[in-house]
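#structure-requests
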Amino acid sequence: MSVTISEAAARHVTRYLAKRGKGVGVRLGVKTTGCSGLAYKLEYADEIAPEDVVFEANGVKVLVDPKSMPYIDGTQLDFVREGLNEGFKFHNPNERDRCGCGESFRV
């Protein structure tokens, strides 16, 4: 099982954590919502919980709760700029379908 983070995403997270002045990495998970059933949760983490599965790539820790792991195993967290927009993008090999608005996905 693994979750990775691209160089671009790692740079963005590192800059944000430095500006914020605290944090150990990012927490990635899923929640039940939307028309396709699941949506990604991404937040900056200030501490590592005992149950967290921890992955480290490009100098950044990605923390995943065990319940989310089956849905996001193999996912790469990326940070992209598309025109005037920028944000995190999830490359998840487990996704089978995504809703039209991009809010949720199904595995």
